[in-house]
Amino acid sequence: MGEGLRAAGNDELEAIGRLYHAVWLETQAPLQPASVAEHRNEAFFIERVKRFPVPPLAAYAQGRLLGFAAWAENTLGQLYVAREGRSLGIGRALLQASEHAIWASGFDKAHLHCLVGNHGARSFYERCGWRCTATITEDAETLQDPVPVPCWEMVKELKA
Questions:
Q1: Of 118, 102, 124, 135, which is closest to residue 23 (Cα–Cα)?
Q2: Distance (Å) of CA 103 to CA 75, 97, 151
Q3: pLDDT tens by residue, 9-38
Q4: Between 160 and 121, residue with greater pLDDT
């Protein structure tokens, strides 16, 4: 698959969905009600990736898929890096490439939501020039009714 970043092809979406699920279980599930994780099995994440409005950006290193990012309009919806890729600069490369793509599509400001309690992610975004502007609540899907999940709303001014 080579090394570096590139737009994912249709043949890579299942692998991205599996990575998304694994990293989500590690980093996001502990910060949410158990009913959210019960609803989000591997198939849920694979189907979610297949519905992204823009092909995700895939990151390859050490001969493997180690991360991905996805956005819609000016909102970064996903940035996930496997544990073994976290000290390689993959997260920063994905974030910078996503910011550039958002800017290149005509936006001068980008947004993202970071789960309250995910201090490592918030620190990472702040080191990369993002700032927290509010704490909001999002509804997370479950097998029954959605449950409220608190998130930090983060923003970054984009420049050429």
A1: 118
A2: 11, 10, 24
A3: 999 999 999 999 999 999 999 999 999 988
A4: 121
